[in-house]
Specification:
2 copies of one chain form a homodimer. The first copy, chain A, is α+β, with helices and mostly antiparallel strands. Among the domains of chain A are: 61 residues, Orthogonal Bundle (Arc Repressor Mutant, subunit A); 76 residues, Ferrous iron transport protein A (FeoA) (SH3 type barrels, Roll). Helix content of chain A is 42%, strand content 14%. Chain A has a 5-stranded antiparallel beta sheet with strand order 6-5-4-3-7. A two-stranded antiparallel ribbon of chain A has the order 1-2. The longest helix of chain A is centred in the middle third of the chain and has 23 residues. Chains A and B meet through helix 5 and helix 6 of A and helix 5 and helix 6 of B. The complex binds manganese (II) ion (MN) (4 copies). The site of one manganese (II) ion (MN) has 5 residues of chain B, from helix 4 and helix 5. The structure holds a DNA duplex.
DNA sequence: TAATAAAGTTAGACTAATCTAACAAATAAA
DNA sequence: TTTATTTGTTAGATTAGTCTAACTTTATTA
């Protein structure tokens, strides 16, 4: 079944909402907001997607992706993240620039293209933001759970991904001298507002709670190779 | 000015018609045929493109690209040919597969992307079919003029480009053992129907007039580095 | 030159994706 | 348990791109 650019974006939005919020209770308003359209518009599209059996949905009920809808959404995400990786690794885009272009590239229709790209990049498992890349069967590594704000004072951790993908945050991270795979030591934490002093490459920085909550990390135990069920 | 996928294709079609036919007297019917739409549809679009000052066009008159329309069309062709080169050189697509995917990729909007791709490919001057790639100012090498059918019996030449880009012809060329930059010696030519015996890499093949007319070549003089005004 | 053919235009209709405004249902608050 | 608020739906309109069928203009040919 050949889907339009727009239909693909609705499916992707549905998957992303459940990814991010954990909830899989998505309503018309939330979906519409995430696509920056009006609820009436989303409602129309939902009828169409239901007709094509890509979503499960009853009037006034909650929306869920069907099995096939989910597979397609995962495929779009696979393409998005592979293209981001290509732009970052091969064309030397910075990590705050890749998303916008990948939003376009993810809709290019050619299985051969994406499989060859995957191979060319040597089957990467994570994109430049640390997000897992689904394989061609739609399977993907479990995403990280622990953030920098969960790390106790005195402990070390490793930055593995970014939660907020906005380019302003991504640029800010670089400015602080931080990046994927960096070791971070939590030096101190202000009790009143959780302002945290971290040490990265021997440089101290002070970051807000909001900042710390948007940096995914692996804890000290995980770094040393021990399994930790809290981290992933 | 941000153009739609469709508008871009109309501009590209206009440029391609003038490229290929030499004529720059394009009418509604010819344009429509080249885009596989009905004349009525092309007529509607022409009004819109005129409004945007991308084409010069009066009712019942001939169609011409404006300066800005031509620049945009050249830009699409630049993107198309750079993507073809990428698919061919980096992702190991065969030369008969690249066009279809490039038809989609040529509409991705990002100047940075195309400039970085250009650099990544080391500023190629020709695509996998030997067609010249416009630079970022829309300037391009003059295209080849002489075809294999122009070469005299006993003379040698070098294949430099393909006139007919259909995948069936491209596949056929490979089957004959021919490719860009191959030396071709014209062994004999049947007077009645111009069936030509050629020698490529010590192998003899017999090709039709239609075939020979669709292979661009440089003549013997040009191969030896002498300038020849007939060839380019 | 007049008839015929070819090329080009217009009118009216359709689909996909969007909107606004009005309405209905479900949920939360009083 | 009413009332108010939030959430979701419907109706009607709009724009881009396409079509068919009818018509007009230009070009060709007899
Ligand atoms: Mn992204
Ligand atoms: Mn990403
Ligand atoms: Mn091509
Ligand atoms: Mn080409």
């Amino acid at each position: 079944m050949l889907l339009s650019y727009t239909e693909e974006n609705y499916l992707k939005a549905l998957l992303k909402i459940t990814f991010n919020s954990g909830i899989n209770e998505v309503g018309t308003n939330k979906l519409a907001a995430s696509l920056v359209v009006k609820p009436a518009t989303a409602n129309d599209m939902l009828k169409k997607l239901k007709e094509k059996e890509l979503v499960k949905y009853e009037k006034y009920g909650k929306i869920k992706l069907s099995k096939s809808g989910q597979k397609i959404a995962l495929d779009i995400i696979r393409k998005h993240r592979l293209w981001e990786t290509f732009l970052y690794q091969k064309l030397e885009f910075s990590w705050d620039e890749v998303h916008e272009v990948a939003e376009q590239l993810e809709h290019i229709k050619s299985e051969k293209l994406i499989d060859k790209l995957d191979k060319y990049l040597n089957f990467p498992e994570f994109d430049p933001h640390g997000d897992p890349i689904p394989n061609r069967n739609g399977e993907l590594k479990v995403h990280y759970k622990k953030t920098l704000s969960d790390i106790a004072v005195g402990s070390s951790c490793k930055m593995v991904a970014v939660k907020d993908n906005s380019s302003s945050f991504l640029q800010y991270i670089i400015k602080v001298g931080l990046g994927i795979n960096n070791q971070i030591k939590v030096i101190s934490k202000q009790e009143y507002d959780s302002i945290t002093i971290i040490e990265v490459n021997d440089i101290l920085s002070s970051v807000s709670l909001k900042f710390a909550e948007n940096i995914y990390v692996l804890c000290g135990d995980c770094i040393e190779g021990k399994k930790c069920f809290e981290c992933q």
